[in-house]
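Please go through the protein record below and see whether the fold suits the sequence. Record follows.
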Amino acid sequence: MGRLGLERSLYQGETGLPPIVEDLRFYWAMTVRSFNTEMPCNWGPRGLGYYNHGVSFFWNVQEDPKALLADFYEKAFGPAASAMEHYYVRW
């Protein structure tokens, strides 16, 4: 079987990992190795998804989603990580 590519928009409410984690693992199992996506410039409400989709999870679909979330909050917000996690969970 050859390798496949895929295009999917990720800006319609996909701000966290759970909606896409299983999808990406499925795509990988189906030999999808190219992924093109659109993400508009609205880091405030969507930063969590951008970081995890674009930076981390696409590179290794076996990453621990909870560890990626913790990494995002720590690196993006430092001492304000807990407050910002609350913000994103409520968003």
